[in-house]
Amino acid sequence: MPKPTPHTYSSVFPSLTKEYLQSGERVYYGLEIDTEFWQPPSDINHPVTQQDVPLTVQMRDIKKEKGLIFAHPAIKAFARHELMKTGFAPVDYLKMQGHEAHIYRADKPVDYPFFQFDIYCYFAPAEICRIVTGEYQKDIRNFILSTNPKQGQIVMERRLRTVTAITGSKQEPWIEPNWVLTIDGYNFRVAVSIIDCCAVHGIVGYAEFCKNSGVELQYKDTFTKEEKSDMLRMYIERPEDFDNYALGDLYNHRALIGNLEKFKTIYSALELDGYYKEPKLTMGSTDAQLFTSILLKFLKMSPNQEKQLKEICRYGTADFFKDNYGSTTGVYLAKVDGGRCRNNRPVTTNTTRLIADADISGCYGNGLKNQIYPVGRPIIVDYPIKSDWNSYLTLRDFWKKYKKELVPGLWFARVSTKPGYELKYPQDYLTSWHPPKDPKKIPTDTSMQSVEFFTIDNVGLSKIFSREVHLATITHDFINWLEKVASPRQRKELLDNLVVNSAVFYPAKERCKDEKQFFDRIKNFKGGNYCEAIIKRGASKVIKIHKECHSWLGINMGDLIVDQLLEERAKYSKTNPDEKPFNTLYKLIINTLYGDMVSPFFAIGNTVVGSNITARARAMAWYMEKSLNGFQTITDGCAFEINRVIYPKKEQRLTSETLFESYLKEYDSAYQIKPLGTEQKIDHHIKQNKNTETGEVKNQVELVVDGERYSYKYSLDWLAEKITEHLKQQFPGVDVISQFKFEIKDIYTSASFHGTANYKFWIGEQAQKGKMRSYRKDGYDSFKCTPDELVEIDDNYSPSEECLIGLRDNPYALERSRPYLYNKILKPGEYKKNYHTSWQYSDVLPGYTVYSGRLLRECSLTQFTFQTKKQFDSWEREQKRLRDKHGQSYEAWFLNDDGQLDFQTMIVELDKLIRTGTMRFSSSREAAKQRHLARELSDHPEFETLNRVKTQLDIRYGRERSN
Length: 963
Description:
The protein is α+β, with helices and mostly antiparallel strands.
């Protein structure tokens, strides 16, 4: 069989001439494909197996201007177009192009040359099972379920991929079903390669991808959201609109080529013409290539020396730590911790005071700009994971021993409290991490994008504990906090009772002044690794000495790339349609660089760089949260009350102890509450701003400071400036504060808060869209239960919005949530994982819309800070047990006579129990001591309804046959 020629999306696709078909070589055929489908209404009380109904398959030869539409056999009775008949839609297209073509399934592989269909689409899971029927569809399903890479697989990570393992880890981007295609008298084996474009520009949609790539779409806005939900009616009643809309989604290849041309321009602007590489199908990969080219040029290496570059960069990658330190604590250095996410005022449910929502401006972009990127081999301090004899250094001893070699921004360590030790002076700065069972499988923040199931087994638990620290990341910013903000006794306790489990650093003495010195040191290095066993009865030991080259070169990321990217971006307007695509692309490049630093997939990634950038962001968030008396801290910002920020009392300073649980100390503390930036209370005026095009009226808050009314824009700018001043005044000598600026997203007049990161704001009575993690703002079907059936009571129920509105209006009498149908697109990974328990007896396939019964649980333990993991585990087990059995947990003890939930009293009581060390809620109940706790328990009022909904869905999906 001839070896396939190198082939990418930019390769030339020859026409299917007789000469090409009879050449005996692999034939490549590029085809754009998209589908339309309709979801028929269903009766929850009479579930049927009928799922999504495919309507049409539209296809376009990438060399042709316009595509063709085929009607799916499922709508034979309504078809306006040629029916798809062959079982594999691309063959129907070939026939319509005048070729004599048919396809059949062979019993075993045949020795024919390959005909490879390169299928271009956007979000391929929605298409892959709709372009096949019958036995061909079963073959595609089997590739999705396959666990054997050598036989071919269809997998979904950031995008859907077709892969077949060849030798070792080498993979080819296609699958080879046992299908035989006969075209114009020539026989071929079929190969299918999916080119899914949904991640080329990150998480943007198809329309935005095309716009960024210079492809104009005329008909993308033809239908409203409601009309898109009834596409069968659109197909029948508005045929011209339907056809134009359907054919408009066939320009992915054209967008890829447009993107390629724009990146040529970008490489040229960055003076990288000789280092140009074709963009990949994910933004992360494209960015990594660009950064690699920049490094090659900076180090005066030729484009063909990429292998040598990867060798000197690989020692800081996540993969290096996982592959080489899997049995030692060095493996913990593979993970980069995420941002800070914490409820700083867990018993505050709402406020009607002036609120500003503040963010760290360009948090990760500025973090990159100030970061040194190291090339070379760092020093790694590690110990055997499974040994009981590790002599870990205390933080004090570690700092004393190595501090002269620790370059700010180029080291990090993981620290824990000594076994069995609980802190006397509680903290909320360090985030503990309890890794998964197999630490070698640790995913980083970026790789988690491809993980569809987040469990303790694959990512571990990251959480702040007040009296315990476990594998927390520390960097220069923690040491700075320890020296400048921690109280003397807390500083002493942490220095003497935190031990360093593992550390990585680029030693100051080994730093090279330029690339010439760096390469000379590598070339002339004389090393040696030694192992000596010393045998003494009862005291034998093994001494290992590793003498590798630890010379390294530090490159400022701002000077290297970030400043130039910002400068180039500034040349293009954000609003001019002709210039905006380049503005957007430069922004994408900058924002993606951070992800590349922590990704295990790129040889230029560096967990030291990533850990320091996120540690700076977490540090900055802590200083904001504490000094501004903020509500919830979410990665790079928090909301706070403008007239109620924290100042120290005279001749005192704010310390970590002063600020711990500050929400309890307002009236008996070493701090005082005052307005930000002024002695007088800040007032406000609400201005109504009308959009002349849409007529929409938007409320805006203008501040009144010391009697002077500020404009809306000046109000935002004034607040941002005053935050910086305030933080510098309260925390003098803290390095990170001078590295960032702030921006105010908006000013509000009231708000409600829930959990760790759920909130909703109002300006006057004009509500802003609320945010509740794991809940969309879409309306859902909700139900109530009667003796005979389920009755739909709302087709636009938003549980998160109703909860957040209720918390603002009256948290002492919150209406209970109702069961609702949650819908999502079934992805290949979930289909495969749950096939035997959920889908094997159903007609559901990946890309179909599936439903589940859900119920918002009002009580969230995430908003409380637990003392230890043991305490947290105990509460979590208890809560899960109650939810599984009763549909609710602690809500049952805080119900009013009319059944409404006294949410405010509940969270105050839970917070008190948790922060005072109570191990579980039930132990606080007198009834539990008498073994009568069951008398106090009750089911959620809608628990029966929820179970009925789930039962009906189990029937619909055939799950009762699996159980």
